[in-house]
């Protein structure tokens, strides 16, 4: 069974989605989270995981076989650079399980295999230092924070060469509608510029700035939500 809105999000750049999120007053940009390769692209619904400092008997990656095909794993490790929560065995399992990708607010390691397999990983950093005995899985399928964005299980995560954005399930229709409009307008502006029209004129004719800036009515509506 196909997921129409995941397919729609996959066709839109993160820059356009980010502009739509800004217009709607939604903080969905995962700031500081970067792809291991600028060739990586991913889109899917999030399978969220939260990590905490290790306690007795804590585990790191035993969740992997519970993640559904096509999902994006979203790991909140509180930005820690000193304890990796993802390595080559998880990359192998995720790739074989046809997951869409992994997003980590923290560090990964064994980056060579992700690059070799083309498995999309987006993280704050990478290191060789293990998370074993340093962090443990605290909860799954709960709300997490990735790069300042609030992500709940099932939210759409879209990644490309610029980074990752999160689209809340409750508002994905309006975010996608607006992002598609932004991309269509920008395409018309580019065509106009190539035809010799001044950029400021092309933008004015297409209502470019109004499309990306919140109106007072939209701001009032955002505050009431």
Write the layout of secondary structure elements.
Elements (H helix, E strand, L loop, with lengths): L3 H7 L3 H11 L9 E2 L6 E12 L18 E5 L11 H9 L4 E8 L2 H7 L3 E6 L8 E6 L3 E3 L2 E3 L4 E5 L2 E5 L4 H23 L4 H8 L1 H5 L3 H9 L1
Parallel strand pairs: 2-3, 3-4, 4-5
Antiparallel strand pairs: 1-5, 2-6, 2-9, 7-8, 9-10
Helix pairs in contact: 2-5, 3-4, 5-6
Question: Overview of this structure, please?
Answer:
There is one protein chain. The protein has helices at residues 4-10, 14-24, 88-96, 111-117, 172-194, 199-206, 208-212, 216-224; strands at residues 34-35, 42-53, 72-76, 101-108, 121-126, 135-140, 144-146, 149-151, 156-160, 163-167. Strand 4 (101-108), helix 4 (111-117) and strand 5 (121-126) form a beta-alpha-beta unit. It has eight helices and ten strands. The model has no long low-confidence stretch (mean pLDDT 93). The chain has 225 residues and is α/β, with parallel strands linked by helices. The chain has two domains: 27-167, Ribonuclease E inhibitor RraA/RraA-like (Glucose Oxidase, domain 1, 3-Layer(bba) Sandwich), CATH 3.50.30.40; 174-224. The strands form two sheets. Strands 1, 2, 3, 4, 5, 6, 9 and 10 form an eight-stranded mixed β-sheet that branches.
